[in-house]
Amino acid sequence: MRARHVLLAVAVTAVWGLNFSVIKLGLARIDPFVLAGIRFTLCALPAVLLVGKPDVAWRYTAGYGLVFGVGLWGLVNLGIAAGVSPGIASLVLQTSVLFTMALGAVVLREAVTRYTYVGATVAFTGLACVTFVSDGSVGLAGLGLVVTGAAAWSVANLIVKKSGGSNMLAFLVWSSLFSPVPLFALAYLSHGWAAYTEAWHNLDVTAVAAVLFQVYPVTILGYWAWNRLLRRYPLAQVAPFSLLVPVFGLSGSVLLFHERLPFMKLVAMTLIVAGLAIGQLGQQRHATPVRTQEAS
């Protein structure tokens, strides 16, 4: 990769990692579902007026909007609001890589290697270690929500794969149309009109900045730049940069919220990142695939 593209990849992962701390800043003022609803409203509008409809079936566009907007970020927001620290959320969410590999093997009959299985075992051992963190940065309910969000992200990746679309910016913008209504509805079902009145009364510069940061640098610019790199370079060169997301996520949480890094948290972080590295890099470097058996 060219030096400027390496810097671009690192910049994108830094923005994505910092986003978890920005989400927590926003959640101090806005309901989790309302925050996600505003985010995807601004992702869709006014961009849909400037970007042509993607060349995919509506079921993929709608499905991605629901799974990515509600299933992923709605649940991650709720998990952070339930007590999971931004650093832990950024770390746990990367297990979506393993869920994606599993879905690819089961649904698309994609080949997986023995290193994928080893990586999954190591990473999920690290995830189990997270449950033993006792510094108040992990709540089991919130952790469950973030893990479910990671699984939803893998489904969103599968939808992208099945859609066969070529213009990912258009796909992202148009799919965002389907996220706000269910998110706003969930906010109303959870807290009634108070979710909206409190958001309005608590709206300040920090809240606005948190929303705008999630919309433009994180979602639109971040995914646009990442997808351009994926089109230009082999997946094996680009994908490993995603391992930097939890590094920046934890760093941002330490700097902004003084998150502590006790021994068990460091062990969990090391195991999860190592497991993801084994799964991603090992599968590319070793040509001894173990194919999953087709269902009888």
Task: Give the key terms.
mainly alpha, 74% helix, 296 residues, two-stranded antiparallel sheet
Categorize the overall geometry.
Answer: globular
Ranges where pLDDT stays below 50 over 5 or more residues in a row are 287-296
User: Please, how many helices?
Assistant: 14
Structural class based on helices, strands and sheet pairing = mainly alpha
- List the strand order in the largest sheet: 1-2
Helix and strand element order = HHHHHEHHHHHHHHHE
Give the total of domains.
1
Q: How many β-strands, per DSSP?
A: 2
- Radius of gyration of CA atoms, rounded to a whole number: 19 Å
What percent of the residues sit in helical stretches (DSSP H or I)?
over 70%
- Report strand %: under 5%
Mean pLDDT: 84
**Spatial gap, N to C terminus:** 43 Å
Topology:
Layout (H helix, E strand, L loop, with lengths): L2 H25 L4 H13 L13 H24 L4 H8 L2 H12 L4 E2 H17 L9 H24 L4 H8 L4 H12 L2 H8 L3 H28 L2 H4 L6 H13 L5 H23 L3 E2 L6
Antiparallel strand pairs: 1-2
Helix pairs in contact: 1-4, 1-11, 1-13, 2-3, 2-9, 2-11, 3-7, 3-8, 4-13, 5-7, 6-14, 8-11
What does this protein look like?
Helices cover 74% and strands 1% of the residues. It has one domain. The C terminus is likely disordered. The chain has a two-stranded antiparallel sheet. Helix 3 runs antiparallel to helix 7. The N and C termini lie far apart (43 Å). The chain has 14 helices and two strands, in the order H-H-H-H-H-E-H-H-H-H-H-H-H-H-H-E. By secondary structure, the chain is mainly α.
